[in-house]
Amino acid sequence: MTVTDVRANTVDGAWFAEVRELARDRDAVLLAHNYQLPEIQDVAHHTGDSLALSRIAAESSASTIVFCGVHFMAETAKILAPDKTVLIPDARAGCSLADSITADELRSWKAEHPGAVVVSYVNTTAAVKSETDICCTSSNAVEVVASIPADREVLFLPDQFLGAHVRRTLNRQNMHVWAGECHVHAGINGAELTAQATAHPDAELFVHPECGCATSALYLAGSGAVPADRVKILSTGGMLDAARASRATEVLVATEVGMLHQLRRAAPEIDFRAVNERASCRYMKMITPEALLRSLREGTDEVHVDPELAARGRAAVQRMIAIGRPGGAE
Ligand code: SF4
């Protein structure tokens, strides 16, 4: 019996089977981000972070991509695969981090710093990517900024926590960081992390660098409050690798709670606990089982990116893909 057969025989078997059949009929590949609902992750052909999924979208032979994630991710897939039909089951699935800077705001910022190199985290709209020199992921952000000549100013956007992590790592003074944040990650704060680390003294800490607590995690490690080797600042893909390699029995996870599903599948023997169980992205959770079915039945919601914008953004995204390690984005 295959994995697909096993899942098709679960309580949601009829839904699972219908989704897969409709996908076959549409010649569609189903991609799900790590923060999606567990049943969406399970029915997808591929689950991963936004970089890994973008790569799969570009390389897939399927004529349609159904992107179960948020809108900028589906836009990125369309930028990389302009000839394919890209669907997102609910086009209202936005992202507070991507919304924290517009293309107009970026143009004004660039005008204040002529000659600066613009580095954008992948959580940005297609319009912002079209004004970007190079995109980055949380895994390769340090490498990307380090590759820019030391005498060039850098404009880093939109995430202030990831930017602070890069600036601290490289000790780079001519790097300006946009004050954007994700409401989910900013809600995972240092006080909660400290309380959890104290309550679970033997647990490892997996922290996503977008989290408001990333600075606190580094401080805790630096101050000796938590042994440095217990704190790991990781992208979501990096968390899965670390889970498989870990000998810990308990791990505290500081990122969106959807990540726990993949971690528990990757290392079932480890007790994974969320630092903040309320850290759930309402946009990610708009992709419901019903929305996915509707999308496959009716071909909604199709994602369009202006071809001129897409062409400008593609170079920045392709540089990101060339430098990024698999499993390196949110
Ligand atoms: S968790 Fe935050 S950064 Fe990720 S999609 Fe949701 S709002 Fe955007």
UniProtKB/TrEMBL annotation:
GO terms (molecular function) for this protein are: transferase activity
Q: Does the keyword Acyltransferase apply?
A: no
Q: Which domain of life is it from?
A: Bacteria
Matching entries from InterPro entries are given as: NadA, NadA_sf
**Pfam family name, one:** NadA
Give the EC number: 2.5.1.72
| Cofactor names | [4Fe-4S] cluster
Q: In its keyword annotation, does this UniProt entry include Metal-binding?
A: yes
**Which pathway does it operate in?**
Cofactor biosynthesis; NAD(+) biosynthesis; quinolinate from iminoaspartate: step 1/1
UniProt keyword list:
4Fe-4S, Iron, Iron-sulfur, Metal-binding, Pyridine nucleotide biosynthesis, Transferase
Stated name of the protein: Quinolinate synthase
Per the UniProt record, the source organism is Pseudonocardia charpentierae
